[in-house]
C-alpha cells in the first residue's frame, strides 16, 4: 500500500514502472493471448449456441473492464482530490480512452453476438443502453480534459465530473431497467450460483479476464508514463521560453 | 440570498432571451415533430410523452450557459464568491432562478403543447406533475454542468455533451410516468424515483457546482 503514496513523486513512479513494466507487459501478453487461444480453439462448442459462444471470451472481459476502469478512475480521482497525488490524476486521464475503447469493444462484440442469438444487432435493452450511456460519460470526461488548458484545473474539474458522473451512471443503470425489459440473461459468472457456466468455459474465461486486466495495467502504466513525460516537456519548454 | 434571487429573476426577464427563449424553442420543437413523423394522430399520441420531455430537456439546456457565463465575464461572479453568503447558496439561488424562468413556464405551457400532439387525456395530470417534479432536477444538474465549463471559451457545446448524459435518468422516469399514466398503469414507483433524483440533485449538486466554480475562479 505504501508504494502508492510514494508514487506521488513522479520520479519514483517512473523508476518503478521502468523496472516493472517489461515483466508486466510480457505476462499480460502471455495470459491475454493464452486465454483467447484457449477459449477460441480448445473449448467445445456450446450445445445451444454453437461456435458463437467463442465471442464470450472477448465480450465478457471487455464489458467487465469497461465498468472497472470507470471505478478505477473514480478511486484515482478521489485520491487526487484528497491528497493532491499528481500521478493519480494523470493515471485517471490515461485510463479514460482505454475504458472508452473497452466499452466500444463490448458494444461491438455484443452486436456481433446478438445477431445470431437474438436476431438483431442492436436492441434497446437495459444493459446495452447503459453501456452506450457509459460510453457517453467517457467521451464527456475526455472532452473536458482536452478543453481545459491549466493541468491542475483540468484534473480538479474532471475529478468532480467523475464523482458526479459515477452517481448518475449508476442511476442510469437502474433507470433503464424500468424503461425497458431486456434480452440479456442474468449474471452467469457469480461465485455462489449453481447456474454457472460449465468448467470447460469457466477456466479459459477466467484466464481471458486476467489477460484483460493485465493488458489494462500495462496500457495504463505506459500511458501514465507518456503523460508524465509530456508534463516534463511542457515544463522544459516553459523554462526555455522564460529564459528567452 | 433572496435579493440575489430577485436580481437574477429581473435580469432573466429584462435582459431578454432567457425567459421567452426556452418557451419559444419548446413550441418550435413541438411544431416540428408532426412535420418529421407525419400528422397521424395515433402516432403522435404514442410519442407525445417522450417528445414533450425531450423538448423540456433541450429548452432547459439552451439557457444553461446564461446561469454563470455572463456573471463570469463581467466579474460579478468573483464578487459573489467573496460575498458573505456561502457559494453553495449562490449556486442554489441561481439554479432556482433558472428554474423559475425556464422550468416553470414549461410546466405551464406543456398541457397546451400536449394538446397539439394529441396526448392521451389521462396523461395530462401526470405530465404536469412529472414536469413540476423533474424540471428542478434539470436546472440543478444544468447548474453543475454550467459551473464545470464556466471558465472555458467555447463551453456551450462541451456543456451539452456533459449535461445530457446526466439528464438521462430524469428523462427516463419522467417519460415513463407519463406513458404509464396514459395507459392507465400504476405510476408510483417511477414517480418516487424521479422525486428522489430531484431531491438528491437539489440537495447535493450545489456543493459540487460550488466546488467547480471555486476551481475555475482560482
Automatic annotation (TrEMBL), chain B:
<dbReference type="GO" id="GO:0015232">
    <property type="term" value="F:heme transmembrane transporter activity"/>
</dbReference>
<dbReference type="InterPro" id="IPR026031">
    <property type="entry name" value="Cyt_c_CcmB_bac"/>
</dbReference>
<keyword id="KW-0997">Cell inner membrane</keyword>
<dbReference type="InterPro" id="IPR003544">
    <property type="entry name" value="Cyt_c_biogenesis_CcmB"/>
</dbReference>
<keyword id="KW-1003">Cell membrane</keyword>
<keyword id="KW-0201">Cytochrome c-type biogenesis</keyword>
<dbReference type="GO" id="GO:0017004">
    <property type="term" value="P:cytochrome complex assembly"/>
</dbReference>
<keyword id="KW-0472">Membrane</keyword>
<keyword id="KW-0812">Transmembrane</keyword>
<comment type="similarity">
    <text>Belongs to the CcmB/CycW/HelB family.</text>
</comment>
<comment type="function">
    <text>Required for the export of heme to the periplasm for the biogenesis of c-type cytochromes.</text>
</comment>
<protein>
    <recommendedName>
        <fullName>Heme exporter protein B</fullName>
    </recommendedName>
</protein>
<keyword id="KW-1133">Transmembrane helix</keyword>
<dbReference type="Pfam" id="PF03379">
    <property type="entry name" value="CcmB"/>
</dbReference>
<dbReference type="GO" id="GO:0005886">
    <property type="term" value="C:plasma membrane"/>
</dbReference>
<dbReference type="GO" id="GO:1903607">
    <property type="term" value="P:cytochrome c biosynthetic process"/>
</dbReference>
<keyword id="KW-0813">Transport</keyword>
